[in-house]
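F.,

This is the one I mentioned.
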């Protein structure tokens, strides 16, 4: 075996050509099977490194072209590209997130509403018409003050009547000097 530079260059070129052939064969096989076509999947199927595909512009262009092409056997109807499917997935994921947030807000509002209704039904909650009750409390407090002052006046009158009654009884019970 010769180690001359020409021989090494020819061996390297032959190895590169064999790897190129494997990449093209893997590209055809994956496309025929309808599998996902990416640089990584082609490199994996051809047993080469991804950098090999990227270094050879024609191979990289072939991979990108096949990835954008419709799957084999699709001749009628709308053709869907991988990019449009990815865009649909992204849009649906965002919509799903918005709907989840909306459902969470609705569940919180429902929970608060049901909790408030249960609180009011239990009788532990404040009555609905607090202003009317506050006015009634003020009226009753004023009435209590009036009744207390009236009671104090009657107590004074009663004390005066008792005092007068005692004096009269004392006069009656005294012996008369006649």
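My design for it:
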């Amino acid at each position: 075996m010769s180690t001359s530079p020409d021989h090494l260059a020819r061996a390297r070129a032959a190895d590169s050509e064999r790897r190129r052939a494997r990449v093209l064969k893997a590209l055809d096989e994956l496309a025929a099977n309808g599998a996902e076509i990416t640089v990584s999947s082609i490199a994996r199927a051809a047993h080469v490194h991804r950098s090999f595909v990227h270094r050879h512009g024609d191979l990289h262009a072939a991979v990108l072209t096949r990835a954008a092409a419709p799957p084999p056997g699709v001749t009628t109807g709308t053709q869907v590209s991988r990019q449009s499917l990815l865009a649909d997935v992204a849009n649906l994921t965002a919509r799903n997130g918005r709907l989840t947030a909306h459902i969470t807000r609705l569940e919180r509002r429902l929970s608060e509403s049901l909790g408030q209704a249960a609180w009011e039904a239990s009788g532990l909650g404040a009555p609905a018409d607090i202003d009317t009750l506050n006015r009634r409390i003020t009226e009753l407090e004023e009435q209590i003050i009036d009744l207390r002052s009236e009671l104090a006046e009657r107590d004074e009158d009663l004390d005066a009547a008792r005092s007068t009654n005692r004096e009269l009884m004392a006069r009656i019970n005294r012996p008369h000097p006649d």
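The chain has three domains: 15-68, 81-125, 126-177.

Talk soon.
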